[in-house]
């Protein structure tokens, strides 16, 4: 599964006002749930296990500079918001910006070879790590989606893949195809030094003073997100991989979902996201970065 310059590369590809998905989509249904924030953190831990992707990202974004880590988080959250809920024009502008940034970013692998962040293999890995994390959290938190609905969600997310330059025809279109993808790439995965350093830093995030309450919340959510990783992934990080951890993580996800599902979304998200967007706009030109769920 590979290929670049898919439908997302052309302006006007997506419908207008409702953007890539729309209110009847499984994507809107899933992304509207507060517990899905755990999936965002989980995807970062999973994506970091691809050494080439991790090294290229580490050498070019806020992971390696803790002062910029918060800005990277803000930009990633804003990209996902626009991709999910923005109009067709807004989504296309965001996708065009991501493709432009990815095309300019390179890194050096451990053997001295050059890594391009827009390599189809790396783009596909990042996409699949993100989507698989959403699927896992949906399953274990008790959202109640059927297998067919999860397949539809995975299929919808091929539109997100097109935004970063992948050909949707080469992207998993079902949960089974997603599982097969991970089986194929598993032999090349491991936790490089950069991945382990990023993991350690995630539990003590450099949150700006005005958001210090988040500094208390993020480590807890991060620990839960890490506990939801597959056992093989936790072992790669050198951490215990007990079945009891799986049970405890699933119970915590269900409790978190039940405790947040009926809280008005505006109350949960709007104040923090509005403030983060203002901060991001103030820094966007000074601090370019690779958004969109890249590791």
Describe the fold and architecture.
The two termini are 20 Å apart. The protein has 295 residues and is an all-alpha fold. The protein is built from 14 helices and 2 strands. The chain has one domain (7-276).
State the gist of this model.
The chain has 295 residues and is mostly helical. It has helices spanning 26-31, 36-47, 51-58, 66-85, 88-104, 120-141, 147-156, 158-163, 175-185, 193-202, 212-227, 231-236, 243-260, 265-283; strands at residues 106-108, 114-116.
Annotation keywords:
mainly alpha, two-stranded antiparallel ribbon, 295 residues, 2 strands
Topology, element by element:
Blueprint: H1 26-31, H2 36-47, H3 51-58, H4 66-85, H5 88-104, E1 106-108, E2 114-116, H6 120-141, H7 147-156, H8 158-163, H9 175-185, H10 193-202, H11 212-227, H12 231-236, H13 243-260, H14 265-283
Antiparallel strand pairs: 1-2
Helix pairs in contact: 2-6, 2-11, 4-5, 4-14
User: Could you give the order of the helices and strands?
Assistant: HHHHHEEHHHHHHHHH
Terminal Cα separation, in Å? 20 Å
Give the strand content: under 5%
Number of domains: 1
| Radius of gyration, taken over Cα atoms and rounded to an integer in Å | 18 Å
Largest sheet: 2 strands, antiparallel
Find the count of extended strands (DSSP E, 2+ residues): 2
Strand order of the largest sheet: 1-2
Counting DSSP H or I runs of 4 or more residues, the number of helices is 14
The level of helicity is 55-70%
User: Which class do the helix and strand fractions yield?
Assistant: mainly alpha
Shape designation: globular
Mean pLDDT: 84
| Uncertain stretches | 1-16, 283-295
């Amino acid at each position: 599964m590979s290929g670049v310059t898919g439908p997302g590369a052309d302006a006007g590809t997506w419908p207008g006002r409702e953007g890539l998905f729309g209110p009847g989509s499984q994507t809107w249904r899933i992304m509207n749930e507060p517990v899905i924030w755990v999936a965002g953190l989980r995807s970062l831990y999973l994506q970091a296990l691809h050494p080439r992707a991790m090294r290229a990202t580490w050498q070019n974004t806020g992971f390696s500079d803790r002062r910029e880590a918060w800005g990277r988080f803000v930009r990633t959250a804003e990209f996902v918001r626009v991709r999910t809920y923005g109009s067709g024009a807004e989504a296309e502008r965001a996708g065009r910006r991501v493709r432009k940034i990815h095309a300019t970013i390179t890194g050096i692998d451990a053997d001295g070879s050059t890594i391009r962040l827009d390599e189809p293999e790396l783009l596909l890995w990042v996409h699949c790590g993100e989507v698989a994390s959403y699927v896992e959290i949906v399953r274990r938190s008790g959202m109640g989606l059927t297998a067919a609905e999860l397949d539809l969600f995975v299929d919808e997310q091929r539109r997100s893949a097109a935004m970063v330059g992948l050909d949707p025809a080469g992207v998993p279109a079902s949960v089974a195809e997603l599982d097969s993808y991970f089986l194929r790439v598993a032999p090349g995965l491991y936790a490089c030094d950069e991945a382990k350093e990023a993991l350690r830093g995630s539990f003590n995030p450099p949150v700006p003073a005005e958001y210090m309450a988040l500094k208390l919340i993020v480590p807890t959510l991060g620990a839960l997100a890490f506990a939801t990783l597959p056992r093989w992934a936790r072992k790669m990080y050198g951490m215990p991989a007990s079945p009891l951890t799986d049970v405890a993580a699933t119970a915590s996800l269900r409790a978190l979902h039940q405790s947040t599902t009926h809280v008005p979304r505006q109350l949960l998200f709007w104040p923090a996201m509005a403030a983060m967007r203002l901060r991001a706009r103030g820094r966007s030109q000074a601090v370019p970065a690779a958004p969109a769920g890249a590791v």
